[in-house]
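Methods, example record. To illustrate the input and output format used throughout this study, we show the complete record for Xanthine dehydrogenase family protein molybdopterin-binding subunit. The sequence lines were provided to the predictor; the line carrying structure tokens was produced by it.
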Amino acid sequence: MLPIAARAELIETPPPPAADWLVAGGKPKYRLDAIAKVTGGKTFARDYRARDLEGWPKEQSHAFMLHATRTDRVFDGVDLALLEPDLKPDRLVLHEDLVADGVTIPVPGFYGDVFLVPKGQTARLLGQPVAMLIYHDFARFDLAKRTLRFSDNVVRYGGAGPSTTPANYGAARYVRIDGGTPDAPDRFSALKDTVIWTGFKGDDPQWPAAGDGDASARGMTAAAEIQNEIAAAGDDMLVLKRSYFSQSIDASAMEADNGNVWYDAKTGVLHAMVATQSPYEVAEVAAVMVSKSKFPLKSVDLKVGYTVGYGTKDHAIFPFYCVLAGLYGDGRPVRLANDRYEQFQTALKRHAFWMDNVMLIDRKTGQFRAMTGTYRNNGGGRENFSTSVGTVGATAAQSIYYLPKSDFSAAILASRAVDAGSMRGYGTLQTMSATEMMVDEAAELLGLDPIEFRRRNALKSGMKNTQGAIPSGAMRHEEILNKAAQHPIWSQRNARKAEFEAANPGKRYGVGYGHVHKDYGTGAESALASLEFDAKGHLKFSHVAHEIGTGATTSQTVMVGAILGKLPDETEFGKVRWPNMPLEATDQPYTMSQEDEDRHKLNPRWTPTFTSPMSASNSVYYLGHATREAANVLIELAVWPAARSIWSRGIGGGQMAPEVVRREDLRVADGTITAAAMQPLSFAEIAAEAHRLGLVTGVTVHTFNRWQWAEAEFDLDEAGHQRFAIDALAVKYGDAATPERKALMTADGWRFVDRASVSYPPTQRNNAGVTYYAPMATLVELVVDLGSGDVKLLSHHSIIECGTQVVPELVSGQIQGGLAMGIGHALKEYLPLYEDGPGDGTWNWNRYELPTAKDVAVWSQTAEVLPPLSDSDPPKGMAEVVMIAVVPAIVNAITHAIGKRFYELPVTSDKIREALA
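The corresponding predicted structure is encoded as:
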């Protein structure tokens, strides 16, 4: 996996569940990790200390950091005079120590240019660490940290200095003009032609000139055509222009950032236990940052605990501060763990967005003719995923609508604010909420029912998105709209409003609707999964997926059982080391040219990227694809031939001979394998036969998706030429395999099968932006108190389509949790960006208001999930979409209640009182 040896494992693989785990139909009664959690087992990374980790020293050291709270004056050192002599740190680490020791910032730009502020320079961002203090015992650490907290005299500043905040991060533009009808080839689109990228002059993107030259010039010509059509619009057109703002917020994950690292200088091993959604990246980058330092490094031993982060623990810088702590721990394990003040000060935030939209709508038909959007998001003082968040927000701005012409641009700005990253929603919450609020206003101006207006413009199956790509599968928006229109919250809204307000003077009743769809995945998703069984049918399942609270370990396990009729007896999640998959990954899936990829893929062991983090709602579909493919490959190479062998025993070809039995007839029924009228077989019977015949008894697969699945062909002896939706395969043979076949198992006891050919989606697919969507609509009924401006939700009803539900209870949990997050974003949560914001280190939940049960209509909320189209309908990643539709639904409901529109979030009671004044 890495240029140096690495070893990784999930520190807490869920224990085997009790016998009552499954209910009728093979569905789980509780989560796979439930017993460990409710009985106090150590599961989360934050639970662990050195004494809990096998092979680690038992003495635990602790560290904390001091932070810069201003960026206008140069850092002039730290003053620890407040500490008594016995409270001085055992080790003080400054920027100059890192330079002297050759420790470098990983991935410059993405993570900034320095870990700690250099003396004589200004901080790049508010809250940037300036020093790390390490203590070899907890008592002194705790007292010293409490002594220094909130003191203005510890971090010393000199005179004014030049800004070191980086330059703005990037700007992109997505322009599309269709060919006259949705089915006709586009005249211009990002997928067909290009995404337009540019730089800045100040804070303004400098777009290329229009013309007939290269693709970017032609794109600007198309953009000018759209602008001219809007400018020339007559009375038969509605031209609606509005500006919106969506605030910065904190994810408020209950597990704050943390890690525990032990550098063993004697062995050159860096042992790490960190909370992360991206373990592969942490292991890889930790090796890079230490590789040229004075600290000899032979291997990285990464352990991964459960975590939760809503995206903010994906490619975050915090784990690398934990590595720094370990390097300077004098051979002791060092724990660096944010408390809640520090979490507010340093954790990745949701991006603030400024959005300027224009809609051109035909008054007669009530259909969109064009839409433009100019979006700016504030990425703070480190780039992180800000550029990607900005562009994803722009591509999502169309929401659920078909737009014949569109021009969406994103400008991703740097600032001295706390850095923002891949928080749940990833830019789409901001832009789609604005679109949905604008759609309601347009419907009012056109005199149309808001749901009817949406119905006239909804994206239908086979239509293109604003990048010119056709989304995967059926678009079921009309079905959702019809259900919403018939729901009592909507159909009775006017009667209920009159009745409620007559009975409640001083209060106003309102109903609102929001309808969005959210892409899932990144356009460069990859995963590994492995299944193997012994002659007694003991089934082991290994996967890169690890638990971040979504129930991924449970759902992946259930998927195996649904295909094989047998749940794994042994599971290993969060697996990072795969010696049976000796792949060569360039990990440049977004920037590689088609020519370079064509050259690379001649190597049968090359792949665009090794594995994905736990993010982007990717577990059930993308990581689950690896699970499903591993199980299906095992069916092809082991289960089907073994079952066929059993059914063919005896004179005249056995029980199978009189019937026509095809591979597609194979079924799982009541935990057994059958086909047509054949005798149902237990998995143990099939396993014994597969080993007796020396068939494949283990498979490991690697998958890759670029808004389309990679496929490869493999020559597999008597199994022949096989094509699977994977790009790499390793197999293990059964006990009775020939010596020649067993001799092939040289990759950690497996045979890595060089593919005969591979088909990767063309790199141009990157310009598709997205092709996989999960839709959700939410109806909200609420009351506004005219005196206080307070908003109370009475109830809300959501309608979601997520394909086949693997574990419906997990879907329900995601819906409920996501709705609470959306309600908080709409009504309560807010962080100032600059000096009065979280970078000053004084923010906690006493100042930052989260919604509680009384705020989210917890006892009156309802939801329905559309049934899958068929039993082959795959599950969809839906953990992000669940929080978005409720945001515009609330704002639209407030408008229905009091007749006032709001364009900035959150809509607080103060803003409502001001609007009513």
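Annotations derived from this record:
The CA atoms of residues 535 and 688 lie 5 Å apart.
Residues 1-12 have pLDDT under 50 and may be disordered.
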